[in-house]
């Protein structure tokens, strides 16, 4: 019988998921997918038929005899509205690791990445002020490229996930903690996954792209106004203090 995938690093994009994926690949009890971002549960073509062909998914894994857990990293799963139900239908015992980053920083990093890939031609101010209109082209689905702001509404995404999975099935990590207290966070993840803790890893900095400019005061104020209520919701939901997410950066682009 084919083994099922046990856990997912399911979000959020631009929150060090690549670094975490690389750490998890070093654990001898874990088999990560042969490549990062399998994109099975957000691929509409995989769910056209009533009977889903999971062999396509399983072909992305090459477990060894001593492998205890199968896992993969596809950050869009958290954001993709139909993904949680599909994942529950596949494995109702699935565990989720979710990394949350300041949504303003995340949006800016997302835009910077798309610019570096030549997928975005607009400057950041134009991209965020025109986002709603531009994202309509992907309706009824979410937009994979231009969703700089929309991906930052984490509370709704978590509620969607918890409609199908108990909260105990999710480990939610602050991006800042993974960045600054990496080994402590990894130990928490290994306990959550019920695998042996590992000796300290050499810290990894993966896919940290240079910024073509810094965010402006106008852009930052615009996003603070958008995310202010969302940050309050998230603080209540997770019992976090996220007030630093709304503070002005030390310097702005002029």
Task: Assign the CATH architecture.
Answer: 3-Layer(aba) Sandwich
Q: What would you report as the Rg, rounded to the nearest angstrom?
A: 18 Å
In the CATH hierarchy, the third-tier topology is known as: Rossmann fold
Task: Report the sheet-strand fraction.
Answer: 5-15%
What is the helix/strand order?
EHEHEHHEHHHHEHHH
| Total DSSP E strands | 5
Q: How many alpha or pi helices?
A: 11
| CATH class identity | Alpha Beta
Low-confidence stretches: none
Query: In terms of structural class, how would the helical and strand content be classed?
Result: alpha/beta
Task: Describe the global form.
Answer: globular
According to CATH, the homologous superfamily is: P-loop containing nucleotide triphosphate hydrolases
Number of domains: 1
Q: In which order are the strands of the major sheet placed?
A: 2-3-1-4-5
- Which percent bin holds the helix content? 25-40%
First-to-last CA distance: 60 Å
Q: Sheet bearing the most strands, described?
A: 5 strands, parallel
Q: Estimate the mean pLDDT confidence.
A: 93
- The multimeric state of the shown protein is single chain
Question: Which short descriptors sum up this protein?
Answer:
Rossmann fold, alpha/beta, 254 residues, five-stranded parallel β-sheet, single chain, globular
Account of the protein in words:
It is a single chain. With 254 residues, the protein is of the alpha/beta class. The protein has a single domain (7-246), classed as 3-Layer(aba) Sandwich (Rossmann fold), CATH 3.40.50. The chain is built from eleven helices and five strands. β2 (30-32), α2 (55-58) and β3 form a beta-alpha-beta unit. It starts with 6 loop residues before the first strand and ends in a 16-residue tail after the last helix. 31% of the residues are buried. The model has no long low-confidence stretch (mean pLDDT 93).
């Amino acid at each position: 019988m084919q083994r099922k995938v046990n856990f997912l690093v399911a979000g959020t994009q631009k929150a060090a998921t690549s670094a975490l994926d690389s750490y998890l690949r070093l654990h001898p009890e874990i088999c990560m997918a042969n490549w990062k971002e399998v994109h099975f549960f957000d691929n509409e073509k995989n769910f056209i038929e009533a009977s889903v062909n999971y062999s396509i998914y399983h072909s992305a894994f090459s477990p060894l005899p001593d492998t205890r857990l199968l896992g993969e990293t596809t950050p869009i799963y958290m954001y993709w509205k139909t993904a949680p139900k599909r994942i529950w239908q596949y494995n109702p015992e699935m565990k989720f690791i979710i990394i949350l980053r300041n949504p303003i920083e995340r949006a800016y990093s997302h835009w910077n990445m798309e610019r570096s890939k030549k997928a975005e031609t607009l400057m950041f101010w134009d991209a965020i002020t025109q986002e709603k209109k531009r994202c309509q082209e992907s309706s009824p689905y979410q937009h994979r490229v231009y969703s700089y702001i929309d991906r930052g509404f984490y509370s709704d995404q978590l509620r969607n996930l918890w409609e199908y999975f108990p909260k105990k099935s999710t480990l939610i990590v602050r991006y800042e903690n993974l960045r600054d207290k990496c080994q402590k966070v990894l130990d928490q993840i290994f306990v959550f996954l019920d695998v042996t803790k590992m000796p300290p890893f050499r810290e990894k900095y993966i896919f940290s792209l240079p910024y073509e400019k810094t965010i402006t005061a106008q852009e930052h104020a615009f996003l603070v106004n958008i995310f202010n209520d969302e940050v309050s919701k998230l603080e209540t939901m997770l019992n976090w203090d996220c007030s630093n997410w709304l503070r002005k950066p030390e310097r702005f682009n002029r």
